[in-house]
# Entry
Amino acid sequence: MDNEFSEQEIETGRVLFAGPCDFMLGVVSMETLPPPVMPEVAFAGRSNVGKSSLLNAITGRKALARTSNTPGRTRELNFFNLNDRLRLVDLPGYGYAKASKKEVAGWNRLIRDYLKGRVTLRRVCLLIDSRHGLKDLDIEIMKMLDVAAVPYQIVLTKTDKIKPTELEKLKAKTAEKIARRPAAFPFIAATSSEKGFGLPELRAGLAQLAE
# Structure
């Protein structure tokens, strides 16, 4: 499902995300979370789905979030303060198999506890690699968010890597899969961090959540 944003909404998003955006802290336990004083948007997805690249792209920075070809590089909940109006939260990738089972279990528990219990969490951007589509792990996270009544939005990444016809089929198939899910936001964002596709619309949608 596509969503039309007005020129004013696109501009509001551009201005917000062009403003100051600073790394606040990395969190490894629920006890060390920053005070819940402003709206938060979390970015979740399987390892190597392109979370750090997307965060850098939507904020127009080259190194806000660290990018790496090594899956599992983000091992903390990393908080960024966007213009004192919105917090962006980069979550560890789920499904990374090369760390120890204990480490993976720890990250996954932290992700789930944060997603289920954070009062200021306004939306989860659930990133899906457009070359692979929704996988079982993604469905698990969606079920958990549905139960916790946490709104989430599917963000397709790396859309420049597939043909436009394939992308349209993927969007239709994904829309079908989320249609009956109670917490799923109907607008599917199709993005490319490399080419800039879909970023103005994603910014416009997220800017509406800022105070």
